[in-house]
Amino acid sequence: MPSTWDERFAGEGFAYGTAPNRWLEAQAARLRPGSRVLSLGEGEGRNAAWLASQGHRVEAVDGSSVGLAKAERLARDRGVAIRTTVADLADYVPEPGAYDLVVLVFLHLPPALRALVHARAEAALAPGGLLVLEAFTPRQLAFSSGGPKQAEALYQAEALRLDLPGIAWEVLREEEIELDEGPLHRGRAAVVRGLGRRATGLPVVRGRDPDEEAAASLRALDKEALIRIVLDDAKNWLAHDGLWFQAVERTHGMDAAIDADRAAWEKFTVVEARRIMERLGLRPGGGIPALLECLGQRLYARLNIQEATEVTATRAVFTMRDCRVQSARQRKGLPDFPCKSVGLVEYAGFARAVDPRIQTRCLACPPDPHPSDSWCSWEFTVEA
What we know:
The radius of gyration is 27 Å and the shape is elongated. Helix 3 packs parallel to helix 4 and helix 8 runs antiparallel to helix 9. The chain is α/β, with parallel strands linked by helices. The protein contains twelve helices and eleven strands. The chain is 39% helix and 23% strand. A seven-stranded mixed beta sheet has the order 3-2-1-4-5-7-6. It has a four-stranded antiparallel beta sheet with strand order 8-9-11-10.
């Protein structure tokens, strides 16, 4: 009995046209000549035939024999060859680590199968291999330009991050575009577009520096990808900080959680300050200028809006204009988090690690009153 896709592809024309997907086409310059490519859910061959015409070795996989027969004819008409495999993606397992590019263009699957297929797609990439993805998001239900009508078959960026944890994303964004891909993909559309590379994952062997191994996987990434990693790592760190605090609070109460938080910050703030100083090439004793430079390099600085005012050689006022933790509580209608006792340990310890002469005084911090345009404020002074 013919499948739904066999029936859709049975006509003389091409349901989604013969031109390549525009997002895929835009990545042409990123591929080495002769790259080995895997296209999952290829359909009638528009992407596979185009990739082959660019000089790549293409393997097209789809559950429709009718669609892949048309893909082979399209490739022959263009004077190129592609390899096709008719397979149910629930059963198909590509060769691990074998491909320079994996293409996932409008491949919509139920959630459980989606996660499985995406995991196999990631594993199929060679270290540093490229993943190109485009799919409809739930907002597509408001448009008539194509795609599934079941919300669970539509994709969101955050779900893709979870499905593909080994991909270092250069681009992963949801946006609206104008589709012009044959009769079934035409008009305004809500999509998610992804472009990323599989982390190199170089194994650590005896005699090699683990830090250098980690750095090697980052050197292959461009600036935008590195910026995203820095921001994501800062958010992950803050999320873990909040989750462990909540776990202690649930078990032992707020007072015990704050005591534990204070004890952790007493140690961590010194570790963070020393690592920042080492990275910046600073020695202890740099005074207020060194402190302000180091404060600007903290993980918090990637997430919060902070400001230094009244700066002289011996004094500065440091103010947190927006605090991600406190702002989140405010949006949820929760009271301010009473962080002053932790802040006294955190900021004083950080300042002393930069320069033992620096004294720290709290000007405002919850649970004490604070101005409406800031959450906390700290004065740093050092004797001339």
